[in-house]
């Protein structure tokens, strides 16, 4: 794949690595591993986004790796086909499990699948394009999706997450109250295998509900669990 900054400034991605060619002089850019690079894009901050068979790599202005995103830290699928920057600088990308977008200002991902109106969850290589009026196109196995990113609106309904199961040693915890009404538990130290299941009562498109959790005093950060509850 090739990304042109100017007539004398190119980025080239291959199966053997990433290269920056300026004024006819090629420079190999080291990554942490070799993989098939399929797409390259530049964000408004000057970072280079590289996508391929091993996820999203973000390089800073000095070409050092700034961040790597894979399925282990936020992506639904790490096979990236195409990356496009929308009219306000957010980064859209096609995968084998739908479309993703990274909201630069909020520093978070959002994902869209067939249930949101995509032609299919699987997209294709070299099938992405940004028109002069900022309409984005992504092609897949059942056709093409096109849209204006600024016309996509969020569902404003954000119901509270509730606990709908508590288990002690994999058996339902016995209580006289509904699980979501239990505010605290006091247990002997021998009862040390406890698990919870939680749910968000939002049924507009429940398969798209995404969750994060944290155990205070143990976890330092929120843990993104996707649709796992």
Q: How would you spell out the order of helices and strands?
A: EEEEEEEEEEEEEEEEEEEE
Low-pLDDT segments:
none
| Helix vs. strand class | mainly beta
Mean pLDDT: 92
* Secondary structure: helix percent: under 10%
| Strand order, sheet with most strands | 1-2-3-4
The helix count comes to: 0
Radius of gyration: 22 Å
Number of strands: 20
What form results from the Cα inertia axes?
Answer: elongated
First-last Cα distance? 39 Å
**Major beta-sheet overview:** 4 strands, antiparallel
Share of β-strand residues: over 45%
Describe this structure in words.
There is one protein chain. The chain is an all-beta fold. Strand 6 and strand 7 form a beta hairpin. The chain is elongated and about 75 Å long. The chain is built from no helices and 20 strands.
Keywords:
229 residues, mainly beta, 4-stranded antiparallel beta sheet, 20 strands
Sum this structure up briefly:
This protein is mostly beta strands and 229 residues long.
Topology:
Layout: E1 2-6, E2 9-14, E3 17-22, E4 25-29, E5 37-42, E6 48-52, E7 55-59, E8 65-69, E9 82-85, E10 91-95, E11 98-103, E12 108-112, E13 123-130, E14 135-140, E15 143-148, E16 162-168, E17 171-172, E18 194-199, E19 211-213, E20 223-226
């Amino acid at each position: 794949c090739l990304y042109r900054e100017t007539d004398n400034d190119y980025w080239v991605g291959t199966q053997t690595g990433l290269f920056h060619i300026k004024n006819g002089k090629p420079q190999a850019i080291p990554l942490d591993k070799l993989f098939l690079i399929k797409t390259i894009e530049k964000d408004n901050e000057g970072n280079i986004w590289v996508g391929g068979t091993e996820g999203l790599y973000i390089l800073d202005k000095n070409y050092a790796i700034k961040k790597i995103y894979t399925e282990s830290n936020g992506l639904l699928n790490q096979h990236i086909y195409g990356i496009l920057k929308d009219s306000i600088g957010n980064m859209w990308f096609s995968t084998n499990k739908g479309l993703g977008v990274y909201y630069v200002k909020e520093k978070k991902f959002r994902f869209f699948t067939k249930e949101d109106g995509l032609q299919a969850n699987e997209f294709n290589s070299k099938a992405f394009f940004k028109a002069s009026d900022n309409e984005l196109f992504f092609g897949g196995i059942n056709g093409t999706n096109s849209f204006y990113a600024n016309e996509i609106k969020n569902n404003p309904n954000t119901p509270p997450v509730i606990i709908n199961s508590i288990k002690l040693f994999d058996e339902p915890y016995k209580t006289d109250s509904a699980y979501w009404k239990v505010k605290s538990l006091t247990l002997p130290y021998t009862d040390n295998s406890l698990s919870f299941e939680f749910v968000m009562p939002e049924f507009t498109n429940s398969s798209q509900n995404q969750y994060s959790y944290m155990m205070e005093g143990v976890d330092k950060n929120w843990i993104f669990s996707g649709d796992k509850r």
